[in-house]
Amino acid sequence: MTLPPFPPELSAAPTVRAFGAALASFACQSVRAHGVQVWAVVGGSLAVVGEEGRGLGLSDGTLAARSLAAGGVLEEGMLVCLPFGAGVLEFVGADPEGVERLSGLAPLLTLALEGVQAREVRRGRGRVAETVEQLVRRLGGSLDLAEVLTATAESAALALGFGRAFVGLFSEVGAQGARTGEVFTHGFDSAFTGGIDVGPVSFGRLMERGEVILYERGRDAGTPLAQGLAELDPEVALIAPLSARGRPLGVLYVDSRSPGARAGEDDTWLVLALAEQASLAIDNARLYGIETRKREAAEALREAGAALASSLHLRDTLSRLLERATALFGADAAGVYELQPDGRTLTIRSALGLSSEYVLRVRAKVGPGVTGRAAQRREMVVARDLTDQHLGGSSRYTRQLLAQGQYPYRGVIGLPLGTRAGVFGVLTLYWQAPLPLDADDLALAEVFAAQASLAIENARLYEEELRREREAAVLLGVGRLLAEDQSDRALSEAARLATLALNAGRGLIALTGDAASGEAGREVTRCATFNLHPPGPAELASLMAQLGRGPRPLTRRHALPVAGSALIVPLRGDPGAGGAGDLLGFLYADDPGTEAPGDRALQLARSVADQMALTLTRERLLSALAREEARYRQLAEGAHDLILSADPGGTVTYANPAATRLLEPHSGPLVGAPLLDLATPATRPALHAAWDAAFAHPAGGRAEIEVGPYRLEVRLSAVRASGGGPDGTAAHSVLTVARDLSELQTLAAEIQRRGRALEAATSRQSELRSYLALFTQAQEEERRRISRELHDDTAQVLIATSRRVARLARELDGDHKGRVDDILADLQQAIESVRRFARNLRPSVLDDLGLLPALEWLAGQAHTDTRLEVSGPERRLTPALELTVFRLVQEALTNVDKHAGAHSAAIRVAYGPGGVRVAVTDDGQGFTPGQALARAQGGHLGLIGLRERVALAGGLLDVESEPGRGTTLTFTLPG
């Protein structure tokens, strides 16, 4: 077996840790392992003095201790331990052959380790031991972290004879190095107000390799280390690591500004020993501080939980929550934001330390800002300094303050407050300075928020239970009150109960419709008030106009006078109870305050209104049922049909007067008699069959029976009780309705007789209409003949005569010529009169040019200023229809000239696809139906003639007239 060469730097290592680092690197390469740890007995215990590679997390030192105790190589999984003297080489994933070769160097490694340990002891035993002992005596087992840090800095400065020293513990550790928090100094002119940055290179040398950094100005000038120490400006400086249990704690810094100051290797060992001893003391003090803080936090949380749980009223719970939060975390202000029902807005429900303007103007939105993010994410949101993090504001007001640089707070945290129903809101804490809380404080804040959420949940449940009990009591009281009595006194008491339950100052109950008849309406008929003067009809009508489907808040403009806010809710009947949702009235409540009623108040108002409406509907239904029963009894008493009621055994229990009058003279008293025995023996089987069918079929049974001299048609139906079955065992009674068929037969004969008379009258009327049509046609023919004879014969004779007279007048002179001229003028007037008479009888323009020119001629002939208007596609109608329209318009214009006293008239002709519509309108004095009837009775049959002529043409006449507004006659004719 060939041994690997023994590296000479192992024997020359100045310290055990330098020996361990060199041995780890040599051994890792020799055995081709994933990782190597070098263990050595230091201070009586086995500790890691060097490491190389990966996978070292598999080792916890147990296998190394066992190997050292056994004095031989041990294997466990991927771990292999090789002991040598007071040390152990531990490999992860090593080559077995390499381990075997390296084991041959174990004696040499033992000698080299012993030599390094001896030199280390000889070099620093006296001075280091004395300094460490002094530090231990100085600390005296103190667990006060500030005292430990201060004593360490002072001891290091004095032991080295340097002027200054400080100790800083890390507050931040990352890939870019570390930064200390508060720094404890000795010998400096002023204390450090900020932290000290340690770069990644220095952090690696200090914490990962355990080295002491030595700075000398003459040697290290111009290096990055010199640039980092430029502010301190040391001549010589030593920086030692503070670490415990593998965790970086901070740094120990010692320097001197004296010219010519130097630091040797012994000084380095002294600082390192002080740092190691101080690390143990600092770690113990930190652990003690953490435990003390945990105990204090637990006690504070216990006290806070007890304080929050001591009240079940939400307002008190929120007030105590804010007091505890500000005291526990030292916040300058705090506020509890409540999530509104819209799920998007947060308003401040309770605040401590916030200005009134801030509380009133802030309406946060879910999402932006610290508070909005906490509500949206349902987790704590931290802003250590709003001026640096730029998280924005949750509301427009806070964004304005941030933009103007006037926002009073820098550190802010938002803690969501959750309940089983969801997010209640957010507890937001404010600090005027940057956030002073560390990670432990923030964890404590989350626990406190959980306690607060539980307290809020309990308070909400308690208040919800109280509210339900109050609401149940109010609903029960209102329902019982109105069920027993619906007088004005009862309504006033119900208004009082409802108003107090809604935490309002005034209230009223208004009922619509007729309470006596049980009908709903839209006008207030009764009104009961509490602490309120009864409003007038106009005010009640204004409130009625604000009613909607359910409860709604009212603004001051729509509320009654003096009210700052109000609500109104309609009282509607139950649609399932036969009320069809009819409006029964409304409930109104108001308060001088301007805060609008919340969702809880509106929900309670709905419940109270529903209870009132249910009670009122039930009472109205009972009243309506009693009225219907009385009405049905009245109908039965006055009915001509025979109505009897029998129990399931067949005994008659009721008989109406018609049955009593008809049957009792032949059957004796009906009530108490067997119903089935009333029929004659011959028809009794039919009555029995109808009785059985009444129980077997929903439609009941029918039969024709004889009772004495009467033949009756009877119908039997079973009236079942609630829950009755089809077998009739649960039937309440049997209703029998009978009708005298002999009377019906007489009535049928009378109907037939009257029908025949009606047919005869209808036939006579048809004959008269036919006669009238023929008469009208003959009249028109006669008019046409007379008009033609007047135009062709009489007018021509008169024209010839006038010409002869005109020739005679030209031959005469003197007085004879004047007399002839007079005769000639008279002849001309006679000719014109004959022509006008002929045109009136039958104008030739109607036959030659058609309806519209004829109507234009009529409009020009009328005494009243008349115009013609035409709409629709013009066309020629049948000659008979054109003549009918012409005569109708002619008669209508004649009536206008004679009776209307109009200034103007209009003829409007509208052609349609199925006929024509003609309207004659005037702006005259008009008339009433009574005046038209009086004129007809006085012999003026104009309208009657028009209506008859339109009827003969198969059309319709519509008359619209009103005194002072004129008259319109509309003729609608087919064709």
Automatic annotation (TrEMBL):
Residue span, PAS domain: 628-698
Location in the cell: Cytoplasm
Cofactor(s) the protein requires to work: [4Fe-4S] cluster
Residue ranges annotated for the Histidine kinase domain, each copy included: 887-975
EC number(s) recorded for this UniProt protein: 2.7.13.3
InterPro entries in alphabetical order: GAF (IPR003018), GAF-like_dom_sf (IPR029016), HATPase_C_sf (IPR036890), HATPase_dom (IPR003594), His_kinase_dom (IPR005467), PAS (IPR000014), PAS-like_dom_sf (IPR035965), PAS_4 (IPR013656)
Function: Member of the two-component regulatory system NreB/NreC involved in the control of dissimilatory nitrate/nitrite reduction in response to oxygen. NreB functions as a direct oxygen sensor histidine kinase which is autophosphorylated, in the absence of oxygen, probably at the conserved histidine residue, and transfers its phosphate group probably to a conserved aspartate residue of NreC. NreB/NreC activates the expression of the nitrate (narGHJI) and nitrite (nir) reductase operons, as well as the putative nitrate transporter gene narT.
Protein name per the record: Oxygen sensor histidine kinase NreB
Source organism: Deinococcus budaensis
